[in-house]
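ESCALATION

Customer reports they have been waiting on this structure for their group meeting. Please prioritize. Original submission:
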Amino acid sequence: MSSPPPVERFQGTSWEECQEFILAIRAHASWERKQRDPAWMADFAANYFWHHALTWHSRLPKDIRQDWSKLEIALLDRWPVPEDDLPQIRPTPAAAPPLAAAPPPNTNEIPNHLLQGLLKLVLDGSYINYYVKLGNRSMGCSTSDPSEATHVRCIASSGGILLERINHSPPSWLGVRWMSSAPTIGSGSTDDAYITYVDEATLKPPPVGMADRPWQRILCTVLASGEVIPTWKIDETKRITLFTFVSPDKTALALVADPKAYYKNRNDEIRAKLFIEPTA
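Update from on-call: job pushed to the front of the queue and completed.
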């Protein structure tokens, strides 16, 4: 009797690993003659999530964890295939590997249970709840106090989802602003940006002596799991995914375009992800 097709642990390191994992689960299910049993496939796959992927899988809604047809879509949403021709604000060396593309810009449907909620931070290796707070200088930071958390409402727009800040007056959008006046946004970038707000009436961020720093409203994708994937909009069809880091003392918050390049310079910082924690 032949041996079953092998299945390797899935860590969530790349889109290639994600696709290999999906194909391995399919192959094993076919060998077991369970390829038409999504519950069996989901239960079997659950044994092979590991490291960051295990944390991600554990936070998925129950109906997704228990149905392979839904879980497979969630995997492909979380680890999408990158595009090779992402434009950049400033050219980077041609030898640099292409940056992972943002999720397709037509993903602007909002799951009903995620229409509004607290903007939550999930730190790698930590099970303590943290939230995004807009501090005194209107720069996003981290807090463990949910009463200080930024409360957002998801608003669908052409090309993605905007986050409206609803626990503050006057009304505003969440925005992103670079610390450098001429950031490199692409592969090899070590520049960082921060979360701020953009006034709904004037469509301008707060004046803090950084008028020449590039900024825009945050355009994002919200997955069924509640994960928020922020992006930097290049044009109507091109966006670059932004990744979240938190300082060692778990207070300062940064958004970056190339997590590997950024981490080489600041390897004491902690990778994190943004989520919407639904509120009634």
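Sent to customer with the following note: Residues 3 and 110 are 43 Å apart (CA to CA).
Escalation resolved.
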